[in-house]
Amino acid sequence: MPTLNTEPKIAPKAAAKTLAKTVAMRPQQADRSAGKPDAIALLRSDHEAVHRLFLAYEKARSTPRRKALVAEICHLLSVHAQIEEEIFYPEVKAALKDKLLVPEARVEHAGIKTLIDELLGADVDDEPYDAKVKVLSEYVAHHVKEEQDEMFPKAKASSLDMAELGARLAARQQALLAQQA
Ligand SMILES: [Fe+2]
After folding, report:
1. How far apart are CA 140 and CA 51, in angstroms?
2. pLDDT tens digits, residue range 30-43?
């Protein structure tokens, strides 16, 4: 099954730096009990960050600004999806004995990845560019809703240690951001 575990190869370094700053600065990312980030809070914080970027894109007019925002969106989504696929989904699948939510989320990631690849290879001023960004935002909104309404509550109610999981997610996220910055 295709995954979103590809390096965000085309996103410029500037986007990586901006994203690293965004991730480092967000206070709501973690319910820091005992100094550890909470997995759900971290993932929700990514969802909020990407939502804000899509809103900023809707208002952006200049080509460089639109291009930079899309690079940041694609980069954030790629790193987010990678840590979910490598760490969060396998743990949730095992804890919930899940055969539905995680496979569905992986298929959705594959669809999102296809659009990311198309956007990163496209000309910002081509007519379908805005349409692709819009459709990507709709795919992401659907995916986020399913995670937040179904997967996260079930994961939270399971035996998973969200603080331990959160620490692993945060460490991997920081490593990926540092690699690309
Ligand atoms: Fe997510």
Report:
1. 9
2. 444 455 679 999 99
Distance of CA 90 from the midpoint of ligand 1 (Å): 14
Compute the distance between CA of residue 12 and CA of residue 181 in angstroms, rounded to an integer: 9
pTM: 0.83
Domains held by the chain: number: 1
**150 vs 74: CA distance, rounded Å:** 24
What is the C-alpha separation between 92 and 34, in angstroms, rounded? 22
CA of 82 to the centre of ligand 1 (A): 10
> Does residue 6 lie in a domain region?
no
How many angstroms is it from 43 CA to the middle of ligand 1?
6
Q: Compute, in angstroms, the gap from residue 40 CA to the centroid of ligand 1.
A: 9
